[in-house]
Specification:
Elements: H1 4-16, E1 21-27, E2 43-49, H2 53-57, E3 68-72, E4 88-94, E5 99-106, E6 119-124, H3 147-170, H4 173-200, H5 213-216, H6 219-227, H7 234-259, H8 265-279
Helix pairs in contact: 3-4, 3-7, 3-8, 4-7, 6-7, 7-8
Length: 289
């Protein structure tokens, strides 16, 4: 595996030796002093170029970065559709374990460029880039919920919970798992981020998809969160659903108390009673009640 320094030398020498590449920006975790360092960190790089099409229409030039295990070009994909119509990305996973996420950005569109706060200038041949503040996590910190955001999160959580129960009762495990692990969990993680925010005065980053939550959640809450991840057992999935409800309730009440927002305890109580009822409803039942 090539070293970090070897990769930086390759990225920068490529830019220095090509007159069309006028600036190089690093962003992502390698620009974040607070991010843990490990062997899986990507090199998130932006090349600002004077000629856009040659970098997009000729894939041969990227081979200089190493032997590619797999390549993705999200701006050529239809599902999901591209996020940007200005830039072009090469996501390169190399056979030696390194990865470069390279964005090609046309210099002519510099006025449209919005730098991520976790950005660091590696090269600026012409002094064309605005002065960047020291890389910081401010774009990634949780922010306090508005009353509407808090209410909507609570409503969505308890509204979707019966979908999980319905899927489990019907024996439709993929459906129940999707509702639990995608829709319901999204609201749980949103509440977890607010909980961490109110504990830390919104100065700590819980990480993408909650990857740093272990650092900030109380041990009891972290253990509960782990228990929300179940296997393919119907019984265990039921337990995960109820644990998720307990965890959501605990965090939501604390967040609500912090900001003076009312927690919808009535919704919680009625839906929780319904879930308990459906769990033991006979499979041949002709009526729910």
């Amino acid at each position: 595996m090539r070293s970090e320094q070897e990769m930086y030398d390759l990225i920068l020498s490529t830019a220095r030796n090509d007159e069309r590449i006028r600036a190089v920006i690093l962003n992502g975790s390698r620009a974040n002093l607070n991010a843990p360092r490990d062997i899986f960190q990507d090199f998130d790089v932006i090349y600002l170029v004077t000629e856009f099409e040659p970098f997009v229409n000729n894939m041969e030039w990227i081979r200089r970065f190493g032997e590619i295990m797999i390549l993705q070009m999200p701006d050529q994909m239809e599902d999901p559709p591209p996020e940007s119509k200005i830039s072009f990305g090469y996501l390169m996973q190399f056979t030696d374990g390194n990865r470069i996420d390279l964005c090609i950005f046309p210099l002519a569109m510099l006025s449209e460029f919005e730098a991520d706060k976790l950005s660091q200038v590696l090269l600026d041949k012409d002094g064309i880039l605005p002065e960047f503040l020291p890389a910081n996590e401010s774009d990634y910190l949780p922010t306090p919920p508005t009353p509407k955001q808090f209410a909507d999160c609570c409503n969505e959580f308890w509204w979707v919970s019966p979908y999980v129960a319905k899927g489990l009762w019907r024996g439709e495990l993929p459906y129940a798992k999707f509702m639990l692990d995608q829709i319901l969990r999204e609201q749980l993680m949103k509440m977890a981020n607010w909980h961490v925010g109110q504990k830390t005065n919104f100065t700590k980053n819980p990480g993408k998809f909650g990857k740093y939550l272990k650092q900030y959640l109380e041990l009891e809450l972290w253990t509960m969160l782990l228990d929300t991840y179940s296997d393919a057992s119907y019984a265990h999935t039921w337990e995960s659903l109820f644990t998720m409800g307990d965890l959501f309730r605990t965090m939501a009440i604390q967040v609500g108390n912090t900001f003076g927002y009312e927690y919808p305890s009535g919704d919680d109580e009625r839906v929780s009673a319904y879930l308990r009822h459906v769990r033991f409803l006979p499979r041949d039942a002709q009526e729910i009640y």
